[in-house]
């Protein structure tokens, strides 16, 4: 094979085009992409909400695929598991340099020298493509045999983000009460983390009935439809289920500005509020800061999940997939050539999760 397809964003428009099949450099690998998630972030990038990209880029930052070729010196994944060509792998969105303040002193992501995108004319890690090229230092993990590829692709960067939120905010404890704002992939991922933490109430809010039905199938104890309830009714419903103190944890996974003041209002006394969906929602919103003080509310933001978060998210998919139909989160599948349709159903919210399926 000498040429492959990739979805390239240039000047605000996305189109599939032929690109060369990459070859790995020492310490790096190439991966034949199987399934690649279409994320709300991809829509924000295409729509210019998060600034102009400096060059044509290959879209996509989440996927699973099989190792196509191993560069010189590669014998294991980034958790020490032996790998060979043909193994199914799951990779993180960027390489890490290993010699910057974030990498070494903070031991955090994003790395200051990492780029989420490379010029589409060069080998790169954009996932809406037949192949990705991962340089040395770009973490990937061999997917354990019991972890279904579809479930992993469905939860792409959403579950690592929810796991990151759990790290940043402090873990949900046994028997606690949780409200999740939004039932897209990040909201579903927050629901799964709450379930795995044995929360006793998991209340999910969204405006799409299909998403709320999915949340119920995956363990939501109550769902609230934004279109059919007022804010006062939602606050009342949450208090009725969680008690007069309010919920222990509220998780924002809605990605729209009005979610923030609502989340503050929903928050319980001595509660915690995690912000995960607002990465792509630029702009301002008013809220009463005194509420943070009078209720001792802790607020933490989370984005740019670490390789460790990706590893644990992959393992959590394996644990949960044994009893939950996680593969059904994929509601739409498209060929690379149909990338704009995939972005469309993600933009409109009609998809729970759309994926690029390179076999189509
Ligand atoms: Zn994403
Ligand atoms: Zn670094």
Overview in brief:
It contains eleven helices and 16 strands. It is α/β, with parallel strands linked by helices and 360 residues long.
Descriptive labels:
16 strands, 7-stranded mixed sheet, 28% helix, 6-stranded parallel sheet, alpha/beta, 11 helices, single chain, 23% strand, 360 residues, binds zinc ion
Task: Provide the fold topology.
Elements lengths: L2 E8 L2 E8 L8 E10 L1 H7 L10 E2 L4 E8 L17 E4 L9 H6 L24 E4 L5 E3 L6 H6 L3 H12 L7 E5 L3 H12 L4 E6 L2 H9 L4 E4 L5 H12 L6 E4 L6 H8 L5 E4 L14 H5 L3 E4 L5 H15 L8 E5 L4 H10 L4 E5 L3
Parallel strand pairs: 9-10, 9-12, 10-11, 12-13, 13-14, 15-16
Antiparallel strand pairs: 1-2, 1-4, 3-5, 3-7, 3-16, 5-6, 6-8
Helix pairs in contact: 4-5, 4-10
Bound molecules: zinc ion (ZN) (2 copies).
Summarize the structure in words.
The chain has 360 residues and is α/β, with parallel strands linked by helices. 28% of the residues lie in helices and 23% in strands. It has helices spanning 40-46, 101-106, 149-154, 158-169, 185-196, 209-217, 231-242, 259-266, 290-294, 307-321, 339-348; strands at 3-10, 13-20, 29-38, 57-58, 63-70, 88-91, 131-134, 140-142, 177-181, 201-206, 222-225, 249-252, 272-275, 298-301, 330-334, 353-357. Helix 4 (158-169) crosses helix 5. The protein is globular. 48% of the residues are buried. The model has no long low-confidence stretch (mean pLDDT 94). One zinc ion binds at residues 39, 41, 61-62, 156-157.
């Amino acid at each position: 094979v000498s040429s492959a397809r990739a979805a390239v964003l240039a000047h605000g428009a996305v189109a599939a085009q032929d690109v060369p099949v990459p070859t790995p450099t020492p310490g790096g690998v190439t991966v034949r992409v199987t399934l690649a998630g279409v994320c709300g972030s991809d829509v924000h990038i295409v729509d210019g909400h998060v600034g102009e990209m400096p060059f044509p880029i290959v879209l996509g930052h989440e996927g699973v695929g099989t190792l196509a070729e191993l560069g010189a010196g590669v014998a294991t994944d980034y958790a020490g598991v032996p790998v060979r060509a043909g193994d199914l792998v799951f990779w993180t969105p960027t390489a890490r340099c290993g010699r910057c303040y974030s990498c070494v002193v903070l031991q955090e992501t994003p790395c200051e020298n990492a780029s989420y995108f490379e010029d589409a004319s060069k080998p790169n890690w954009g996932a809406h493509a037949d192949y990705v090229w991962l340089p040395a230092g770009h973490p990937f993990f061999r997917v354990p045999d019991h972890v279904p590829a579809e479930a992993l692709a469905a939860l792409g960067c959403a579950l690592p983000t929810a796991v990151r939120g759990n790290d940043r905010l402090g873990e949900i404890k046994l028997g606690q009460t949780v409200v999740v704002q939004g039932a897209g992939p990040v909201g579903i991922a927050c629901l799964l983390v709450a379930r795995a933490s044995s929360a006793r109430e998991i209340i999910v809010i969204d405006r799409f009935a299909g998403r709320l039905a999915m949340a119920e199938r995956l363990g939501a104890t109550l769902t609230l439809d934004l279109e059919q309830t007022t804010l006062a009714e939602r606050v009342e419903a949450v208090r009725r289920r969680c008690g007069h103190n309010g919920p222990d944890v509220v998780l924002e996974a809605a990605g729209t500005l009005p979610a923030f003041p609502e989340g503050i209002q929903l928050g319980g006394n001595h509660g915690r509020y995690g912000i995960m969906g607002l990465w792509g929602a630029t702009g301002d919103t008013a809220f009463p800061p005194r509420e943070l003080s009078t209720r001792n509310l802790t607020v933490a933001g989370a984005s740019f999940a670490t390789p460790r978060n990706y590893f644990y998210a992959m393992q959590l998919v394996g644990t949960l997939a044994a009893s939950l139909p996680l593969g059904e989160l994929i509601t739409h599948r498209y060929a690379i050539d149909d990338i704009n349709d995939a972005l469309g159903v993600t933009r409109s919210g009609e998809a729970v999760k759309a994926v690029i399926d390179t076999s189509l």
